[in-house]
Amino acid sequence: MLSKELRGFDVREYIRLLTAIAAVDGIDPVEEDFIRKQAAEFGVDADALLKDPPNDLNVIVGDSSHVTRRAIYRDCFMLAQADNTFSFAERKAMSALRKTLGLSLECALAIESWAVRYDAILREGQRLMGEDWKPADENIKLD
Q1: Is residue 108 part of a domain?
Q2: Domain membership flag for residue 140
Q3: What is the spatial distance between Cα 43 and Cα 25, in angstroms, rounded to a whole number?
């Protein structure tokens, strides 16, 4: 059962838009992996979309909940940066997607800011758990 916040979430539209954003500058293996993981999380088969990705970002917002729209924007933004580049084509596509989803610029920028911070925290955690971890300042001695 979906939580109250996720009621009205349109999984198929979400996966379709992830694929469309990734296809803007060619689907990178990191992007494909992200899409496959998200699709698997919701029990959706992404193969058909990855084989023939949609070439437009038209979204029927209609009854889509604000949660669906914000989740789509958040994950499309994270996906666009998954290959460590954010191309001009991806920026244009994200701008068009924001407008189509009916999100304010302020909301979109807040989502992007959060996503960048979240990604940095995840990377820091991976670095801390790595075998080759070293303190940022090797002059610090705690013993």
Answers
A1: yes
A2: no
A3: 26
Q: How many CA atoms lie within 13 A of 3 on its CB side?
A: 4
Q: What is the pLDDT of residues 59-114, one digit of tens each?
A: 655 666 788 789 889 988 988 888 777 889 889 989 998 998 899 999 999 999 99
13 CB-side CA count, 13 A: 21
- Number of structural domains, the chain? 1
pLDDT band (50, 70, 90) for residue 6: low
> For position 20, which CATH number holds?
1.10.3680
* Sign of the Cα pseudo-torsion (20, 92, 34, 113, in order): negative
- Sort 134 into a burial class: Cβ within 10 Å, 0-12 / 13-18 / 19+: exposed
The whole-model pTM stands at 0.69
Report if residue 53 sits inside a domain. yes
Domain that holds residue 49: 4-129
